[in-house]
Amino acid sequence: MRAIRIDRFGGIDTLRVDEVPEVEPGDGEVLIRAIATSINPVDDKTREGAIGEGTPPLPMTLGWDLAGVVIDGGASGLRTGQRVIAMSHQLGTGRGTWADSVALPADSVAPAPASVSLVEAATLPLPGLTALQTLDWLAVSAGKRLLIAGAAGAVGGLALQIARARGARVDALVSREVHLDFVRDHGAEFATTDPTTLADRGYDAVFDTFGAFVTDAVADGGRYASIATQAGPVPDLSARNVRTTVNQVREDGAGLRELTRYVDQGAVTLRVDSTFWIHRMRAAHERFAQGGLKGKVAVAF
Ligand SMILES: NC(=O)c1ccc[n+]([C@@H]2O[C@H](COP(=O)([O-])OP(=O)(O)OC[C@H]3O[C@@H](n4cnc5c(N)ncnc54)[C@H](OP(=O)(O)O)[C@@H]3O)[C@@H](O)[C@H]2O)c1
């Protein structure tokens, strides 16, 4: 079977389509035939060797997102042929999803949304779980006031929609004027490209997707979560009784089921910027590297 692997760290040209042995599912695992995946920033950082300690050994198969059909559900209750989504913590386990078949623990797999294609569904797992788990940590619920920094990005765009579905009031900081319509169309009350307009707005919670560190925006007693691991820790705000974290996404089948419900209810729409076949993985990465994406770069098998 094919797998997109690297045997050295570096640029896009290090990506190779390799022939590798078929995988066998272990105890408690589900074997999935990949139909689509997507590219996330962590894939670039891993390929470049920018993660450092904890990077899986070379050669490695890359990729976190997966949408496909079950080949062997084991004892999971998932049926052969069932459409599923999954997230593999590739950095933690070395088990990448950019391969024709992938075996994953049953509790990191869930039924795919019925209302979208598997290409669209492949854009959901990693960004969606990051959005969901971080919103949970931020205790975002009905009536809470939330600021999302990077609200037009993959994680930010899903966080915006999920927070609105929970009844929160959401404001948005985006990188470019061209993104303002998207965040307003998805329920942002106030949207800006200028972080200096956010000070003293007294948000209950701030969800920071790129290391904006707009700490003046959070109310005393509020919560501030960053997911921008590479930007370092959030400044200490304990003097203002503000809890801070740099959240790390984790495999979470129950979370995937919740995301599937949001999509099938129409509360969350999935955005695909462009789709490439797997043998054009380098071209897919060139599009991803251009930035200013209006959705995810998906890759079909
Ligand atoms: N800790 C975790 O578990 C975890 C999980 C998932 C992702 N992440 C990290 O979180 C970050 C976001 O991931 P993602 O998939 O959402 O990436 P993404 O789709 O590229 O989204 C990032 C968004 O932030 C915007 N942005 C960047 N700099 C900005 C600035 N100075 N002002 C306003 N907006 C700005 C980008 O706009 P443009 O595209 O227009 O520049 C983009 O819309 C990445 O660094 C990723 O590695 C961490």
Describe the structure.
The chain has 301 residues and is α/β, with parallel strands linked by helices. It has two domains: 2-124 and 270-300, Quinone Oxidoreductase, Chain A, domain 1 (Alpha-Beta Complex), CATH 3.90.180.10; 127-246, NAD(P)-binding Rossmann-like Domain (Rossmann fold). The protein is built from eight helices and 16 strands. The chain has helices spanning 41-48, 90-93, 118-121, 125-137, 154-165, 180-185, 253-264, 281-290, and strands at 2-6, 16-19, 29-38, 60-61, 65-72, 83-87, 101-105, 109-111, 145-149, 169-173, 191-192, 203-208, 218-226, 243-246, 272-277, 296-300. The strands form three sheets. Strands 3, 5, 6, 7, 8, 15 and 16 form a seven-stranded mixed beta sheet that branches. Strands 11-10-9-12-13-14 form a six-stranded parallel beta sheet. α4 (125-137) crosses α5. The longest helix is centred in the middle third of the chain and has 13 residues, at 125-137. The protein is globular and about 55 Å long. The N and C termini lie close together (11 Å). The model has no long low-confidence stretch (mean pLDDT 97). NADP nicotinamide-adenine-dinucleotide phosphate is lined by residues 40-42, 126-127, 130, 150, 152-156, 173-176, 209-210, 227-229, 247-249, 291-293.
